[in-house]
Every structure is written in structure tokens, then in C-alpha cells.
């Protein structure tokens, strides 16, 4: 995980950013596999 996400600890905003990033990566991977 990039240091910029972990820098401010375990606040809700960081959790949301990490969750959105993971979801985007998962969506990208599934679309790439579908090609």
C-alpha cells in the first residue's frame, strides 16, 4: 500500500480511500481478464 494512504493512520477517510482503490483494481483486473 502506498505510504500516502497509511500516513494519517486508521481514520475513516483512509479506510474509504483504500477500499475504493481496492475496488478499482479489482474492477480493472476483471475487465482486463474479460478482454
Structural description of this entry:
The protein has helices at 3-6, 12-34. With 35 residues, it is mainly α. The chain has two helices and no strands. It is rod-shaped, with a radius of gyration of 12 Å.
- Structural class assignment: mainly alpha
Mean pLDDT: 76
Low-confidence stretches: none
Estimate the global geometry from the Cα principal axes.
rod-shaped
Largest sheet: none
N-to-C series of helices and strands: HH
Q: What fraction, in percent, of the residue positions are helical? A: over 70%
Cα gyration radius (Å): 12 Å
Count of helix runs: 2
Strand content: under 5%
Count all strands and give the number: 0
Please give the alpha-carbon distance between the first and last residues. Answer: 27 Å
Core attributes:
2 helices; 77% helix; 35 residues
Short description:
The protein has 35 residues and is an all-alpha fold.
Amino acid at each position: 500500500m502506498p505510504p500516502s494512504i497509511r500516513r494519517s493512520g486508521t481514520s475513516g477517510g483512509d479506510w474509504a480511500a483504500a477500499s475504493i482503490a481496492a475496488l478499482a483494481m479489482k474492477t480493472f483486473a476483471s475487465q482486463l481478464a474479460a478482454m
